[in-house]
Amino acid sequence: MFYWLYEQFAASGYVPILNLLKYQTFRTFLALFTAQFVVVALGSRFIRWMQAKQGKGQPIRAEGIERHVIEKAGTPTMGGVMILAGLLVGTLLWSDLSNVYVWAVVLVTAGYGLLGFTDDYAKVTRQTTAGVSGKLRLALEAGIAMAAVALIIAFAQKPAETPELLTSVTFPIFKQYFLDLNWFYLLFGAFIIVGAANAVNFTDGLDGLATVPVMIAAAAYGLIAYLVGNFIFANYLQLHHVPGVGEIAVFCGALIGSGLGFLWYNAPPAKIFMGDTGSLALGGAVGAVAVATRHEIVLAIIGGLFVAETLSVIVQVAWFKRTGRRIFLMAPIHHHFEKLGWSESTVVIRFWIVAIMLALLGLATLKLR
């Protein structure tokens, strides 16, 4: 919204200070601070309100870690509403609202947040860990993701040098090669977004475990969006230039800010859980940004922690169905380490370190091309 003020007044020279708003980096930092302020300001009142409304709070799996049933019982959920409030306010205030990439990622984030809220509401009201039907949720997630990808393909500015890039898959390291999927890219893009959303959902099992890795991934993709969206930097690094996608950096800034604000209340011991409202929305947001920047495959590196969490569940279930035995003491894998005797804070901090290293490794692929 404030970018519109720049277009209306600063370009004409009436209010020179508004010229600052033309810089994506400046608006990114303002979006970060705005989102954080909104979440922190909402925090205490929202948590008290959720405690009053939910009573027993989020149901805890009886077959899970024993101490979680005691320590975390009664903690309210749906904290993702706070995250979404900060993220959307920061984005809508400071980004260029005529940019189709902004609306595509907002569509995914808000849509997945609504799905997660519905799931959380069902769990809290029924006091069960089973929410909305898994098949129905996946179908709705795929529909929202394909709508966002179609929006990008139909309305985003096509690169002059490679107009087919909007429907293509690019590869790390190999700068000259990309695979044009045409409209089949709808399915590929939806797979990335849905996969990212559910991977973050699996990871969200300990206080602060999902929040910080999502912020780390957002920071990495914010930098990627800025570089890929800038023709000079993209040309220097020999990246595929995606016109207009640099505006996604503002969204990533708001995502980091909302994560920081939520971490103020979610740091161990958590006063509120983000729930599916937050985990699905944040995961979908990261996946949508990866698709928008045409760095989908790099997400497997930058979001490697989320991939490992998901694979641990898939492998555990498949092996148990086949042999009747378990590979891990408990899945997702963060619970395996708890079963080994690691404290919750040790698991969380070590996983944060892994997330940082993977993000740096993913960013290193930019220079290797």
Offer a few descriptive terms.
globular, 2 strands, two-stranded antiparallel ribbon, 369 residues
Describe this structure in words.
By secondary structure, the chain is an all-alpha fold. It contains 15 helices and two strands. It has a two-stranded antiparallel ribbon. Strand 1 (168-170) and strand 2 form a beta hairpin. The longest helix is centred in the N-terminal third of the chain and has 31 residues, at 24-54. The protein is globular. The model has no long low-confidence stretch (mean pLDDT 88).
Note the total helix count: 15
Low-confidence stretches: none
What structural class should be given to the helix and strand makeup? mainly alpha
Mean pLDDT: 88
User: What's the β-strand tally?
Assistant: 2
Main sheet properties: 2 strands, antiparallel
Spatial ordering of strands, largest sheet: 1-2
Q: Tell me the distance between the termini.
A: 36 Å
H and E order:
HHHHHHEEHHHHHHHHH
What is the global morphology? globular
How much strand?
under 5%
**Rg, Å, rounded:** 21 Å
Proportion of residues in helical segments: 55-70%
Describe how the helices and strands are arranged.
Layout: H1 2-8, H2 24-54, H3 66-71, H4 80-94, H5 100-126, H6 134-155, E1 168-170, E2 178-180, H7 185-203, H8 211-229, H9 231-236, H10 248-266, H11 275-292, H12 299-302, H13 304-323, H14 333-339, H15 344-368
